[in-house]
Amino acid sequence: MNIAVIAGTPVDTQMGVDLLRRKGAGALGFPVSRTPEEQTAFQVGSQSAREAALGALLDEIRARGMERVLLYCNSLSATIDAHALAEARGLRIWTPMDVYGEIARRYRRVGVLAANCQGAAGVERAMVNAAPETLVLGTGNLNLVLGIEAGRPPEELAERCEHLLRFFEGSGAEAVVLGCTHFPYVKEALQRRTGLPVLDPSETLAELVLAP
Question: Are both 90 and 24 inside the same structural domain?
Fold first, then answer.
């Protein structure tokens, strides 16, 4: 089974490809932008331009004979109706937003570490729609994404996030949720700096994509 992976930049696209390959699936990447800054500008720009760009990628994916798509980018998933675009082309698509509801049903107060405010808002929407009583404490940190793209050591990057972890702890969060598909890179380093569980939805997302 070959699965198409669409993501914001070549780095997180490859992370999505690697995730599926570790599960034994074939995967091919389709990045939307060249850099995190370019991707953020794309997300806050024209809705019609986003739909046209994603639609063109989906058309290419269908032309290659692929039927399953993983949109491996939280913030892009939050700014476009990817399901409608894919279904109109006879494709099946999954996004990180498909798994945050289950987390919200297990935790009532969560800290969300996202790449930008688009991503934080999308995670909050998915969680509150699933469990209206959920309180989301959201942060956007594009600097963390830039550090990951530059290949900085996870421990160094996690140290720079300690103030955010203390904010979540002091605000009564029950867990810290990774709200960006770049952030599994620093998950273990973050976990060593907080007593709160650090939750990575990517494994659950992969299971959904690979299910029969």
Answer: yes
Angle among Cα 69, 15, 3 to the nearest 5 degrees reads 25
DSSP annotation of 134: -
- 51-85 confidence digits (pLDDT tens): 999 999 999 999 999 999 999 999 899 999 999 99
Q: What is the pLDDT of residues 156-189, one digit of tens each?
A: 999 999 999 999 999 999 999 999 999 999 999 9
Q: Which of the 8 DSSP states describes residue 172?
A: T
| C-alpha angle 200-203-204 in degrees, rounded to nearest 5 | 95
Query: Both 6 and 51 in a single domain?
Result: yes
Calculate the average pLDDT of the chain.
96
- Structural domain of 130: 98-201
- 171 with 192: CB under 8 angstroms? no
What's the token pair of residue 147? Answer: 């550090």
In this structure, are 72 and 159 located in the same domain?
Answer: no
Residues 112 and 146 in one domain: yes
Amino acid at the residue 144 = L
Q: Using an 8 Å Cβ cutoff, are 141 and 114 in contact?
A: yes
Rounded Cα–Cα distance for residues 77 and 63 (Å) = 22
Residue 110, H or E segment:
strand 109-114
Domain match, 90 and 120 both = no
